[in-house]
Amino acid sequence: MSSDAVIRPYRPTDRNAVRRLCCETGYLGKAIDPVFEDRELFADYLTRFYTDWEPESTFVLEQDGEVKGYLMGSRRPLLHQFHSFFLNLSLFARGIFRYPRYNKASKAFVRWILLNAWREVPAAPRRLPHFHFNMLPEAMGFGTTREMLVQFFHHLRAHGETHVFGQVVTFEERRGAKVFERFGFRVVEKKEITKYRAHRDEPVYLCTVLKDLNDGKLAEYAAR
Known about the structure:
Order of helices and strands: EHHEEHHEHEHEEH
Largest sheet: 7 strands, mixed
CATH superfamily: Gcn5-related N-acetyltransferase (GNAT)
CATH architecture: 3-Layer(aba) Sandwich
Number of helices: 7
CATH class: Alpha Beta
Number of strands: 7
Distance between the termini: 11 Å
CATH topology: Aminopeptidase
Strand order of the largest sheet: 1-2-3-4-5-7-6
Number of domains: 1
């Protein structure tokens, strides 16, 4: 990790920066706009619960005074599911209202969500803590990923949690499943995300990865 980079707990003042970063990295590490133009809905779906309901489980990577990465997590799965149900209803209503004004790519994205998205989500534990993260390309690296995970793992263990899972997008040129195996995760299931077929020749997968927080590797990560 760069010497001028700091990983710290999320602050309310980070909200706009986190939402912007979500959209700037939402398309396989690049801006989401070619796939879906409605940044407000996209950021609400991926970040709103974590910034507004459980901010204490979010960490950010700050470099030169700018937020360049984040890890968003939750150790309250039932609350997350409750919130997601009502948020999804709200997003559906807003998206349908805006649908006639969307461009062709955005309309295709909405159709994929309605018809196929639910088929392409790999199985995941419903009662365990979870996380997801994103970083700008210039901030990516094994060291930054490791440090963000270590801080999140410490947070979970401090509250008595024993396991955690994540759902991560993988493809050949970016953080394959083997990267997470180095951190003690095992792949539970993976499925292809077909929405990217119109944009890439290479298949893209969503993987559920699971980790035992008591596997002895937490201290090993922290010591490196």
